[in-house]
Amino acid sequence: MVEMLQQYCDRVARYSTAGYSVVIRNIIHYNNLHLKEDLPLSTLTARFNLSRSYLSDQLHREVHSNLTDYVTLTRIQFAANLLRYHRYTITQAAQEVGIPVVHYPPVQAHHRRDAVPLRPVESHRGLRDEPAKKENFAAALSLLAMLCSMVL
């Protein structure tokens, strides 16, 4: 019970929007409720009747990030929480927060022994008969690509 209360208090402190302006607070709450959707700047400016430059400047000033990076980071954090606390699979967590799961079709080398496939081949590492593993692998690759793009 004490551990659950500590987790609750940690989450309240982590997700508190008390230090933000009303505009950014509304944007953050809208973002958190609509993670599955595409959230371009134009959608939010139309929804909240704001100019693009004003919203962009406010985001940079208060969140220290542009909208795309903020939404991506929020999606990754929510996916990580789903994986940690709710025992979702990687694919389920990615789909729940709107991260596209890219399925790579197998590519066979064309009659040359030295040719290297451009994408993973289905028969490698026991993935042939296990579509769930392939989906989880694809979702993990998507999450990893998003994390790398945030770092670089």
UniProtKB/TrEMBL annotation:
Alphabetized PROSITE patterns for the sequence: HTH_ARAC_FAMILY_2
Record-annotated HTH araC/xylS-type domain positions: 25-99
Keywords for this protein: DNA-binding
Coiled coil, from the record: none
GO MF annotations, alphabetized: DNA-binding transcription factor activity; sequence-specific DNA binding
Protein name, per record: HTH araC/xylS-type domain-containing protein
Origin species: Gemmiger formicilis
Upper taxonomic lineage: Bacteria, Bacillati, Bacillota, Clostridia, Eubacteriales
